[in-house]
Amino acid sequence: MIFKTTRKGKTWLKVIRPPRMKVLRAHLFGITLGLAALLAHLIFAAPEQRNFLLFIEWLVIGYFTGAVFCLLYNLLAYLFLKHLHPEWFQLWFWYNRNEVVNIIKTPTPQKDWDDNTRKLYNDEPFKVFNFEAYDEVTGPQGREMEHPYTIVFVANPFIRLREPKNGKILAQRDPIMDNDSVFLKAVYRALFSFEFNEMIGRPDIFGKIRVVTVNETEALLSDSAKPVDYELVKNQCYVREFLGKLEIDSGETGDDAGDGVPLETFAHRMLVPNQETREKISRLVREKTNNRIRHIDVIFALSASPTHDISSARMALKDTKTKDPEEGKAFTFSIDPFCEKSGEIVKSPEEKKRCAENSAKDVAMLHEYFPPENGMGLVAMSAYDVRAKLPVHEFAHAMSSVSHGMIVDEYYDYLVIREPSGEEDDVTGGVEINRVFRNPEKMDKTHHVPVHKHFARYNGFFYESDRDHHIAAQGWRSYFPSRKNPEVRCTMEVTEDVFQFDELLTDFIYDRLWVKVNRDFLMP
Question: Which residues contact 361 (CB under 8 A, 6 or more apart)?
């Protein structure tokens, strides 16, 4: 729900997640009570009173009693929450539609918010989220955070298109610019996804994350829905159609990805973040906040395209502009801790970087404090498809790093994205944390490379492989870390309502986020 209010000549929107009306399921509760009534009749009624009609009568009485009670309970619970304890269910934030940049969540309110915004929040920023405020959010001795971990949600003004006949690049005005409601609801659904995630939603992580929205309406050059010349609006195209070519090598799986879904069925619906917009958005946020926000870690570009609803992400880039050593907290990683995979895994330069010569020599990498300048993670996400899992899934990609550990999907075997020029996308050539490739030359009809018991060693801890994964018998080259619960698929896999990060990713993501949200206190 979005409510409008006006203060000092400014129009503010208050975004609220309403309480759920259903608490108990009427049919299930009614059937249960009906069966209980029938059982009580069978136990306590005299034998001569037992007949079929009485059985049905007791079953119906029990069902209607339970169903009516359930409906009344749901109604009273809804009214109780809505009017007496709204803080128990609401995730809300204020949004000034007249401002290009809005800070809607921050661990340093006195520093980030002006007086007008602070009054709207009643000086209680943590009560707008359903998590316990972390007591040490300001750091030791009350020291304020200078550089909170920052996630920016951008309303995408234009979508970069490619005209199929002559190859001319065009730009389509994004419908999200005409609909505040779609943009803001997508933002709070994404925050809901973060807030209740078993890893990202921890108070010591999510409590230290700053969330910013950007809605740059003043830069629009056309109000028309018709495509315009891309050169006129290229700096406002944060999202583009999928223009590249998908090449898959899946062994015996052919051209299928994951659970038998052909790549062609979703490639033409994919949204892709524009790589060159990192600098544009970063500069815009710095200018509009008087340089208060100098570092951005992850950008979500939200689109309301009616034809493209498949989201995608890009990891933080390699640091190629500076020769200064990166700063961060070191970690060690070995893809072959017992030297048992020699000759059985792909020996590309990236694999060699992860694979030590022996178990005593782990590879050293960094959880860097800051992403490279203008090299932060990017997500292009459809505002119409913000399921509970999707923001967390894409965020895991974007918060990882090409050079310091890529978190990849676990629902396909091997995928290369090539741009129309023939060059590979920037995600290739990186270090993958949660996937091992078996050597295809060793996988023929006479020899099958097994899924090794030990997947990797991270920071001295051993992690086993998921040998119960559904791809184990499909002849895939890839295999992945073990799951916490064999019945629950990993968040990076194809899942429905139940998901969680696997053992290795749980530790890796927590360590990486912990270093970044505490960088003010860890940096020398």
Answer: 334
